[in-house]
Amino acid sequence: MIEPLLLTTTRVSTFEGTRALTAASGFFFERDGRLFLVTSRHVVFDEPTKHYPDRIEIELHTDAANLTCSVGLSVLLYKDGKSIWRQGKDDAGEIDVAVIELDRAVLPADVEMECFTPAHLQRSLDEVEVGSSLLVVGFPLGFHDTLHHLPVVRHAAIASSFGLRFQGQGYFLTDARTHRGTSGAPVVMRSTEADKLPWKLLGVHSSRMDMGGRDLQLDESLGLNCAWYADILLTLTDPKARVEGVAPPDSRGKAAV
Q1: What structural domains and CATH numbers belong to the chain?
Q2: pLDDT tens readout for residues 70-91
Q3: One Pfam family from the UniProt entry (predicted)?
């Protein structure tokens, strides 16, 4: 049997028309019967790097007994001149998490996936200590089991006080070896609760953290990463949440106003 955790996560490929751009990670979140894909916001829109895809593709398993069977699902990122994803913001600025609601009607009838739910979010901060062991489930540099279309996991540890906003931002730090392509991966901790998916969803991996003054020859990378607190998903998947989409980029590669 395949571990359910590996079926929560999918490879996200970004495109501008037919031109492939980047590869990242994402995972499934279900709330009140609605299905969402969660990834990093910079995967779908990143003004500093002029990264403006207009669609993404994800892989879906279609046979639990034969994981080599999969199909690709293409999702347009803009509708009626506005973006379809939801992203968050707080007093410190933008939160690097995006959710996209998926239409169950377009999914294969025999789709095989596992979804995190609000019940998988960590409620008590006292149960999570600095140094606690975590897993980051994703596709580093796009690497994965290409036969069975499954992600890989990296071990991590909590590197800052969980529950505090590191430097006032809505994330905590993890100590882990990560690479490009892991953006949008779920950061999870083993749960003692009896559940088909016995993991607590603590965060969404965003990026590596480094010091601007580091000597590239003498000093190694810090090996620290930003993980945005996963409770932002309660806000982003709230049916009453306001969606303020952004316009697609214009022909000059700048965000249209």
Answers
A1: 4-236 (2.40.10.120)
A2: 999 999 999 988 999 999 888 7
A3: Trypsin_2
